[in-house]
Request: fold
Amino acid sequence: MKMVITVVQGKDAGSLTDKLVAKRFGVTRINTSGGFLRESNATFLIGVQDEQLDEVISVIRATCKTRSHFLNPMPPMSEPGGEIYMPNPVEVQVGGATIFVVAVDKYLRL
Ligand code: 2BA
Reply:
């Protein structure tokens, strides 16, 4: 058995939940946020049999899209003379999903 831990963008979290539940995967969704962008994202815990691993990854791949985000590297600064310096936003590509696959030693439902 494997535990799939995947971080996806908040915009994709609802449709990913729907698709996984429709295919009868057991899913736990946690509302999280990324350390770099500090934006809301979602982390899914999905316990699967080894033979279901490829299917769950293909559902994630088909649902979660890569998007560009624009980040202001620093706040506007006032320069000597009173002019305001506006730093250019930096483009950051956020992947569709970050996926970790972990072996499960034991699975119990009590
Ligand atoms: P964030 O930490 O908010 O990162 C969002 C995007 O910012 C990343 O997209 C990456 O393109 C960029 N980024 C992250 N750290 C950076 C840095 N130190 N310098 C420059 N750019 C940086 P993704 O790599 O697709 O990651 C999307 C989200 O997946 C991350 O959101 C984080 O919540 C999670 N994640 C990614 N790698 C992880 C890891 N090794 N462990 C745990 N969570 C991870």
